[in-house]
Amino acid sequence: MSEGKNKIRVTLVRSPIGTKREHRACVRGLGLKRLNHTVELEDTPAVRGMIRQVAYLLKTEVA
């Protein structure tokens, strides 16, 4: 099939200021550092769970 794993592109579009500490930790754990910062991550269950928890702060797309 495809070589390697699928990737997900995640962009921080809303500020985590004023959110729960756990949600801010998820944003940092995803590697997002500032607004409009985009990272490409492996499509794993752990990453999907973190994205689902803070989906209201993010924009996601399949890379």
Structure report:
This protein has a single domain (7-62), classed as Ribosomal protein L30/L7 (Ribosomal Protein L30, Chain: A, 2-Layer Sandwich), CATH 3.30.1390.20. With 63 residues, the protein is α+β, with helices and mostly antiparallel strands. The protein contains two helices and three strands; from the N terminus they run βαβαβ. The chain has a three-stranded antiparallel beta sheet, with no helix packed on it. It starts with 6 loop residues before the first strand and ends with a strand.
The number of distinct structural domains comes to 1
N-to-C span: 16 Å
| CATH homologous superfamily title | Ribosomal protein L30/L7
How do the strands line up in the largest sheet? 2-1-3
As a percent range, the share of helical residues equals 25-40%
How many strand elements? 3
Order of helices and strands: EHEHE
* Multimeric status of the protein: single chain
Query: What is the number of helices?
Result: 2
From the 3D structure, determine the CATH topology.
Ribosomal Protein L30, Chain: A
- Compute the gyration radius: what is it? 12 Å
The name of the CATH architecture is: 2-Layer Sandwich
Global shape = globular
